[in-house]
Amino acid sequence: MSTSIVNKEPFTGRTQKEDNSIVNIADVISSMLLAVRTSKCKIDITGTIAATIPFLTNASGSYFTFSGDVLYLGADATEFNGNQKLKIFLNGHLQDNGVDAIFVSAYSFYLNIAVENTDKIIIIKGV
Fold first, then answer.
1. Domain range annotation of the chain
2. ∠ Cα 107 101 64 (to 5°)
3. Which residues, in sequence order, are CB contacts of 19 under 8 Å at separation 6+?
4. Strands of the 120-126 sheet, one edge to the other
5. Global confidence as pTM
6. Would you write out the chain's pLDDT as a tens digit for each of its 127 residues?
7. 96: DSSP letter
8. What share of the chain is helix, strand, coil (3-state, %, to 5)?
9. Beta-carbon neighbour count of residue 56 at 10 Å?
């Protein structure tokens, strides 16, 4: 039994939409995943921030700008650490709650590494 390959072109991670425009498949998947999420915020780093300096999930700070939904992180560290629906990404890399991302308060946390200008933190809180 043989299998024939219909499309022999290399996979580029892009596809053509009905209107003949090209779209990145990762963007499509990302938007589909975010559609089922309830909340998302972004923290853009505008200066150097040492490890253990808190980030807010409801306002901007001295060296970072906050945008998006206000996110409640939990009542305490146990709730924060165990929340599998709360995902914190630094430059696209998932941080481990309770290890890389440490609970401070219901609306703040810190990373245990320093961050630099142009780093980005994305937080997604699922349903």
1. 38-126
2. 60
3. none
4. 64-68, 37-45, 120-126, 86-90, 93-95
5. 0.71
6. 444 444 445 555 555 556 666 666 666 666 665 556 578 999 999 999 999 999 999 999 999 999 999 999 999 999 999 999 999 999 999 999 999 999 999 999 999 999 999 899 999 998 7
7. P
8. 15, 40, 45
9. 18
